[in-house]
Amino acid sequence: MDGERERGGGPGWWQGHGPLRPRRWAGEGADGDGGRWPWRSTLLLTAFVLAGSTFAAHVQEGERAALDVFARVLLFLSCALLLWRRRHPVGVVFGTAVVVALYLGAGYPYGPVFFTVAVACFSAVVAGHRRAAWTALGLLCAVHLLVAYWLYRWLPPAGDRPASLGQEIVVTGWVVAIVAVAELARARREQWSRERAERAQAARRRADEERLRIARELHDVLAHSLSVINVQAGVGLALLDADPDQARTALTTIKSASKEALGEVRQVLDTLRTPGDAPRAPAPGLDRLPELVEQAARAGLTVEVTGEPPRLSPGTDLAAFRVLQEALTNVVRHSGSRHARVRLDGHGGTLRLRIDDDGPATGADAGGSGNGLAGMRERAAALGGTIEAGPRADGGFRVLAVLPVQAPAGATRAEGGEGE
After folding, report:
1. Can you tell me the mean pLDDT for 141-152?
2. Are 387 and 376 in contact (CB under 8 A)?
3. Quick one: residue 158, left, alpha or beta (phi over 0 = left, psi -120 to 50 = alpha)?
4. Residue 129: what are its φ and ψ, rounded to 5°?
5. CB atoms within 10 A of CB 252
6. Is 12 exposed, middle or buried (0-12, 13-18, 19+ CB in 10 A)?
7. Of 104, 392, 402, 405, which is the most exposed, with the fewest CB atoms less than 10 Å away?
8. What residue ranges in 260-385 does DSSP mark as E strands?
9. Diameter over CA atoms, the chain
10. Residue 363 DSSP class
11. Shortest CA distance to 299 belongs to which of 323, 317, 325, 321?
12. What does the pLDDT read at residue 330?
């Protein structure tokens, strides 16, 4: 009430430019062992590579070395390494590059074996290991150039000639395609990661704003009602024997204030239970000012009201009512004065709400220096308004609220809450 007032070790050398990767790419499954093995995709790729390489060997017969047992072992090994592409993407991309380099160096036919490097490179880039992927791909290209234009003299097949321009165009096209697809996938994954983070941050911000709104509502309702109850309970105890009729009046006031407080608290809690439903009762506004003055009178405080408020948006209307309610509660609790003055002035699209009392203060927290005053300022700030509160030169205390007549878009619901 008023008056008291985010992994472990860093990435390796190869992971300099990658996104924050999901667990299924980082090899960090829920069970801690890297998640599921990519059996299906690896088996399908193995079948494709073996069948495609056999077909390529028939097409390139006489130009490249025939597929033998060693060639098939290399083809199978390059595919089998892909089983570890989610757990160890760096090792897999270098391993496939080395195996394919041996395959090319042995003079075997060009063909789908390059798909294994493409998949490994794609996995490494998406996992965040861009440098490793491009280094492995660069090493494979360098080996190809050495074999195609220099080492072919000493490597099988016998009588091989330098690579043709068309062949180099095909190889270059493969490299460009791998780079383009992998970078596109990485960029999309980074974008999705940013969007997820932004959505999560927005959800946390909305939750924090809603908690603050509910805390302000409960504080304002309970602080005012309990202050009235506290004062009237003291009056009732003091007059219980000397003036039973006056004590009965105090108890009646306590009953009325507690009933009203329970109703408003129930209204806030109903909003929490059924956030999508329409409110059962409108939020309080300055139309309840006479009721607020009457409650203050029952607590022994005389309130003099001057001026008329303009037509206000629901959010501003609720904020003005709560500020006024909190300010009068502070007078009851912290001021020796039994008289308060309220002035309402609307002009230029703003509402000026001023509450004065003549003091003197009855404690160090006069005027409210805790949650109540903080809640006033939060309400005003949410609407684009201001709150000034402090002692006057003559010993009294003043609260001055300047609020926009029409709340900004989005602020009405935040402040209006259950009242809209």
Report:
1. 71
2. yes
3. beta
4. -100, 65
5. 13
6. exposed
7. 392
8. 302-306, 339-347, 350-357
9. 125
10. S
11. 325
12. 84
